[in-house]
């Protein structure tokens, strides 16, 4: 049991925790609560309570409690750490709107920190601690920048009553709760570990910002002569009645993280008012992939590299918000895609630069449910951010005419393309930096029409046939399912590439629409709090953890290891396109033990990243 009295944002210490931290996989050890004997299903739950006199109190229910039976309190949490079987840990937090906003935010943070402390600690050792031990000067630069930025954010909040900053206030309240919960989780286990400073938590939360800050602080840092390994893809199929959104996350192998966070926080835009978008699916330092129900937008972002070094002069720790913070505020306040872009553009940090695909769900629903709605219903928008610059436009007509949109790290808008310096890279390094003729542009153009079902688009997003596909130029990084760790003849190996994949399908419910969804195991079918999707609509969400590899035909197989498939004499079956890259067209799962990069810190990681897709049910 944990009791906290008198929580206050003003009293945040430098060891406070941050919501939405990038969390690494691992087996969480949680002491069972006081619910008596229950089935040990590997899923943990807890409830936070609060009143003005006694403050906060957490009760841990241990394992085996069904999600809808968890007492509500101020907030309740359901934690599913099935990383050994699915590659994912899922944490679902729900708060009750009748409580004050700050109470809800603090309680949500406490619950998450107390259950996921082990994952937090492992990820800190793999990232921040490792970098600071080996790159002390860079570590000093980053920490100073983040400290100055945090101080500036506090000053801005304290001098305004803008709803934008009300959300920032709740954000940091939740940080304080997260830090308190983290410390309590460690204490419950009876451990003494290194102290993790608040600024380290902010670092872990700002991964995409840190990448760009490295270019700001080091003028001589070389740019890659290949483009980003991350991509996003949207397809408009079946006479415009089906919309698919795919996102591939790039990263280093020691930074593989798959903590899926489902957060329902019933806080207001300002005190006493209703929040527009209260349900968020958050992952990777707040980067949203799919807000499922009770929300208006689907958003996916693909990193853009800034080659124009003059733009880094516009990046400052003062009066600017890191990208993750701006994404959270935009998610909570936006009523449509244009709003979302407007909120994201405010206090632009010039870090975490991306091309964002934004889908207005309400407008798309009207389009598929009402034949009188015009073709151009403004449901698809594209935004791009650079230091000091932001642009967003309605590109619904482009999506409908082409039936797809692919985002692969190159700016679409001509002025952003030139301003970023990508045109210079094209002139000096060729079509690798051409928006129309880069390897990924050509591959998507050739293969997009094969994304006709959940199964086929999963295969598309994991595809890598670099040895036999002429468009990949013999480079395993020049494929949709990019793998930088695979030895090849044209580039040096490096532990970077696609580290997880997600897809969402939004469509009218048809009799045969689930024919390609074979997931049946409970651990592979995640149902969040507040699943209020209409019976006339169908949302299908799939996610695959780890670097790209060939998917297996039985997605309900949870063992995630080759031996079991060999025992069953199973063969790999794919639909639509080839998935592979080796001589036998089979891309083997990433394996730490067999990798030349096994000296990289990977505390808490599974050794063999051989996982099939999971389903997240709305």
From TrEMBL:
Kind of enzyme, top EC level?
hydrolase
List membrane-spanning regions.
12-33
Give the CC-aspect GO terms: extracellular region
Q: Per UniProt, what is one GO molecular function of this protein?
A: phospholipase activity
- What keywords are annotated for this sequence in UniProt? Glycoprotein, Hydrolase, Lipid degradation, Lipid metabolism, Membrane, Signal, Transmembrane, Transmembrane helix
Instruction: Give the EC number(s) under which this enzyme is classified.
Output: 3.1.1.-
- One matching Pfam family: Phospholip_B
GO biological-process terms attached to the record: phospholipid catabolic process
User: What is the role of this chain?
Assistant: Putative phospholipase.
Q: Which PANTHER family match?
A: PHOSPHOLIPASE B-LIKE 2-RELATED, PHOSPHOLIPASE B-RELATED
According to its UniProt record, which protein family does this protein belong to?
A: Belongs to the phospholipase B-like family.
Designated name of the protein: Phospholipase B-like
Origin organism is Pediculus humanus subsp. corporis (Body louse)
Q: Which gene encodes it?
A: 8234372
């Amino acid at each position: 049991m944990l009791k906290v009295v008198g929580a206050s944002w003003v009293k945040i210490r430098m060891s406070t925790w941050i919501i939405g931290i990038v969390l690494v996989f691992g087996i969480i050890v949680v002491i069972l609560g006081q619910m008596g004997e229950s089935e040990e299903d590997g899923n943990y739950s807890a409830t936070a309570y609060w009143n003005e006199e006694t403050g906060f109190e957490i009760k841990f229910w241990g394992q085996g409690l069904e999600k809808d039976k968890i007492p509500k309190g101020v907030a309740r949490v359901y934690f599913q750490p099935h990383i050994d079987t699915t590659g994912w840990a899922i944490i679902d937090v729900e708060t009750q709107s009748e409580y004050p906003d700050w109470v809800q935010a603090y309680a949500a943070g406490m619950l998450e920190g107390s259950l996921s402390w082990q994952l937090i600690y492992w990820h800190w050792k793999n990232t921040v601690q490792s970098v600071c031990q080996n790159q002390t000067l860079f570590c000093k630069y980053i920490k100073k920048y983040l400290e100055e930025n945090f101080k500036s954010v506090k000053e801005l909040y304290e001098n305004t009553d803008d709803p934008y900053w009300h959300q920032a206030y709740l954000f940091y309240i939740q940080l304080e709760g997260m830090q308190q919960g983290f410390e309590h989780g460690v204490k419950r286990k009876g451990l003494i570990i290194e102290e993790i400073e608040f600024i380290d938590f902010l670092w872990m939360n700002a991964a995409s910002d840190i990448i760009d800050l490295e270019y700001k602080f080091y003028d001589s840092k070389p740019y890659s002569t290949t483009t980003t390994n991350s991509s996003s893809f949207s397809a408009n199929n079946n006479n415009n009645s089906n919309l698919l959104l795919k996102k591939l996350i790039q990263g280093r192998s020691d930074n593989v993280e798959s903590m899926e966070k489902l957060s329902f926080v019933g806080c207001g835009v300002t005190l006493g008012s209703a929040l527009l978008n209260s349900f968020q699916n958050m992952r990777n330092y707040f980067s949203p992939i799919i807000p499922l129900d009770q929300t208006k937008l689907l958003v996916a972002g693909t990193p853009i590299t800034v080659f124009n070094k003059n733009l880094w002069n516009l990046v400052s720790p003062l009066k600017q918000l890191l990208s993750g913070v701006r994404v959270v505020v935009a998610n909570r306040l936006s009523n449509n895609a244009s709003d979302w872009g407007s909120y994201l553009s405010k206090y632009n940090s010039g870090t975490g630069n991306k091309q964002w695909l934004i889908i207005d769900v309400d407008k798309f629903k009207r389009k598929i449910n009402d034949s009188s709605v015009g073709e151009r219903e403004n449901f698809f928008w594209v935004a791009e951010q650079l230091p000091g610059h932001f642009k967003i436009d309605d590109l619904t007509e482009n999506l409908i005419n082409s039936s797809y949109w692919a985002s692969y790290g190159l700016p679409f808008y001509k002025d952003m393309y030139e301003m970023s310096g990508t045109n210079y890279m094209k002139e000096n390094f060729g079509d690798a930096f051409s928006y129309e003729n880069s390897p990924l542009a050509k591959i998507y153009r050739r293969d997009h029409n094969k994304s006709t079902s959940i199964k086929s688009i999963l295969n598309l997003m994991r595809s890598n046939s670099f040895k036999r596909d002429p468009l990949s130029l013999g480079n395993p990084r020049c494929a949709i399912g990019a793998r930088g760790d695979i030895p090849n003849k044209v580039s040096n190996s490096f532990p970077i590439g696609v580290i997880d994949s997600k897809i969402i399908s939004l469509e009218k419910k048809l009799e045969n629409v689930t024919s390609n969804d074979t997931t049946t195991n409970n651990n592979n079918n995640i149902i969040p709090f507040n699943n209020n999707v209409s019976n006339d609509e169908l949302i299908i969400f799939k996610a695959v953890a780890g670097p790209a590899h060939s998917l297996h035909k039985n997605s309900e197989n949870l063992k995630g290891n080759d031996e079991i498939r060999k025992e069953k004499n199973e063969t790999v079956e794919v639909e639509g396109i080839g998935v592979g890259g080796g001589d036998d067209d089979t891309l083997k799962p990433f394996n730490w033990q067999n990798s030349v990069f096994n000296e990289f810190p990977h505390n808490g990681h599974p050794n063999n990243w051989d996982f099939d897709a999971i389903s997240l049910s709305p």
